[in-house]
Amino acid sequence: MSGMANPRVERVEAAGQAPASVGESPVWRAAEQALYWVDIPAQKIVRLRLETAERTEWQLPEKVACIAFDHRGTVLAGCETGLFAVTLTEDAPRGEAMTVTGRKLAAPHFAFDDMRFNDGRCDRQGRFWSGTMVQDMAAANPAGALYRFDERGVLSAPVVDALITQNGLGWSPDGTTMYLSDSHPLRRQIWAFDYDIEAGEPRNRRVFADLHDYAGRPDGAAVDADGCYWICANDAGLLLRFTPQGKLDRQIAVPAVKPAMCAFGGRDLDTLFVTSIRPATGASEHDGHLFAVRPGVTGLPEPEYAGEL
């Protein structure tokens, strides 16, 4: 692995801030110099303005697992019953969560009642991708699938199926390689696909990395400007970086045992923000909090949804 010294990982949130149960989907909004993320079981979208440490929360009527933004700042949210357009209001007293509802855009056919969307983001052309999963992970049910929601507002048929716990979405800087993982303990694999940027179609699926050979489960991911793929190794308290050839070249320890997803942000996109999960039992003081690390590389701007919400 690379001889580059490992940087310090620090907690971002103010002292006394309650941890997330399942912190996911961090998204940096350069226009606001703010980081957004979700707490899935708490049904919340959270914003943190880095310069002022001002924190704002929005309460949704159902679980929200992933978010993206359109050019106007409207949220495209992958939730428990489908995809929603959510307008984040700013009318609550400071420190109080604002209750918001969304307009349902689309929903796939859920084969089981206990399903929801999970990891999701936009490709380089602004199409939104997200996968579904059965929420009872112990069932190990491969009923999940990956879907594409295009700029016309059309939800595709399943593009990749037979997934247990879909995660790890990301694209190479030129958009021609797509990454996807299944973080269930029975899978623990990351796949790469050739990606047709005109058609929005992944092809030629192959194993990019198998975490049975390393540690942890491959959860949420980010791609840096060098084309390297950063993955949160859930259950191992690690960030792992793989080269475009699938070689592990760096690992960084995170104070939380369950890092969930990472995203580049900050004014120069040189900070890697990491959300985490707080276990129901045996949690440490760090589990469920937000972390930041400067890994010595920069990221790429998170694409916005190309359609109108």
TrEMBL record:
Its EC number is 3.1.1.99. One of its GO terms (biological process) is L-ascorbic acid biosynthetic process. Pfam families: SGL. Binds 1 divalent metal cation per subunit. Keywords: Hydrolase, Metal-binding, Zinc. Residues 22-277 form the SMP-30/Gluconolactonase/LRE-like region domain. GO terms for molecular function: calcium ion binding; gluconolactonase activity. It is an enzyme of class 3 (hydrolase). Substrate binds at residues 116, 118, 136. Its cofactor is Zn(2+). InterPro entries: 6-blade_b-propeller_TolB-like, SGL, SMP-30. A divalent metal cation binds at residues 24, 167, 219. The active site is at residue 219. This is 6-deoxy-6-sulfogluconolactonase. It comes from Paraburkholderia sediminicola.
